[in-house]
Amino acid sequence: MKVLIVGGGNMGRTFAQGFLAAHIIRPKDLVILEKNEETVTFLKGQEIATIVTEPGDFIGKVDLIVLAVKPQNAEELYPAIRPFMRPDQVVLSIMAGVKMLSIAKGLGVIKIIRSMPNLPAKVGMGMTAYTAREEVTRKELIEVQNLLSTTGRAIYFENEEMIDAATSVSGSGPAYVFYFMKAMIEGAMKLGFNESQAELLVWQTFVGAIHLHNKNNLTCEEWIQRVSSKGGTTEAAIDVFKEAELDQDIQKGIRAAFNRAVELGG
C-alpha cells in the first residue's frame, strides 16, 4: 500500500511513525506533503518518508491519502490537490470537525473515512473514533482500521455525528484528565508537599488506578466503594465532590465541547 500524508505536523508525524513501527508501510511507500520549511528540514532528517513540498502527479499514484492539516486550512487544500487525484482514491481525514460531505465536495471523491484521534496517539496509546461513507469497501475499511490501530485503539461508528461526540469525550478528554491532576497537585502542595513530591504522588496514583482498572472487571463506582470506608477520608472527599455536583459539571463540560464541535463542523 502506498500512502500520502498531507501535513507533516504533530499528528501527521505520529501516524507516519505508527505506520512504520507496525511494519504496515515501508518508508519507500510513504510520502509526506508539507510546505513549512522548518518542518520539511526536520522530516528529511528523520528519513521516514519521501518529503515533498508541492502537489504533483504522485498524488494520483497512492492508494490512501491522509488529510492531517488543520481544519481551517481545508478549503485552501482542496483546490491544490484535487487536480491530481483519482475519483476512486480513499481519503482518511483526521481534520477535527470537518464533515465527510465537505471533503467529498472539495476533492471530488466518494471514498472517505473520517476519524478523530487524540494526543496519546503520540505514544501509541491513542483512542481514535472513525466512520466511513458507504462507498468505502469492507477491505478498504479494514486496511484503514489496521493503520489507525498502530497508534492505539480504534472504534468504528455508523453515524458521523458520533465523531463529534467522541471529539468531546476522547478527543478533548486528555485535557480533562490533566485539569483534574493539576488541581490535585495544587491541593497536595497546599498540604505541605513540594512540587516534585506532589507531582509524583498524583502521577503515580493516576497510573496505578488505570492499571488496576485494566486488570479487573469492576466498574468505576465499584472501585470507589473499594477505596472508601464508612466515615473515612475518601468518603469525606467524595461527599464534597457530590455536594459541589462535580460530576454534573464534568458532564456539562463534555456537552459544551460537543456543541462546539458541531458548530465548527458547520
Question: Your description of this structure?
Answer:
The protein is of the alpha/beta class. It folds into 2 domains: 3-161, NAD(P)-binding Rossmann-like Domain (Rossmann fold, 3-Layer(aba) Sandwich), CATH 3.40.50; 173-264, ProC C-terminal domain-like (ProC C-terminal domain-like fold, Orthogonal Bundle), CATH 1.10.3730.10. Helix content is 51%, strand content 14%. It has 11 helices and 8 strands. Strands 3-2-1-4-5-6-7-8 form an 8-stranded mixed β-sheet, with helices on both faces. The protein is elongated, with a radius of gyration of 22 Å. The two termini are 33 Å apart. The relative contact order is 0.09.
CATH level-1 class of the largest domain: Alpha Beta
Q: Please, how many helices?
A: 11
Stretches with pLDDT under 50, minimum 5 residues? none
The helix/strand class is alpha/beta
Q: Calculate Rg over CA atoms.
A: 22 Å
Strand content: 5-15%
Largest sheet: 8 strands, mixed
The 3D shape can be described as elongated
Q: From N to C, what is the helix and strand string?
A: EHEHEEHEHEEHEHHHHHH
- How do the strands line up in the largest sheet? 3-2-1-4-5-6-7-8
N→C terminal distance: 33 Å
Number of strands: 8
The average pLDDT score comes to: 95
The CATH level-2 architecture of the largest domain is identified as 3-Layer(aba) Sandwich
Proportion of helical residues: 40-55%
CATH topological fold name of the largest domain: Rossmann fold
For the record, the count of structural domains works out to 2
The CATH superfamily of the largest domain is NAD(P)-binding Rossmann-like Domain
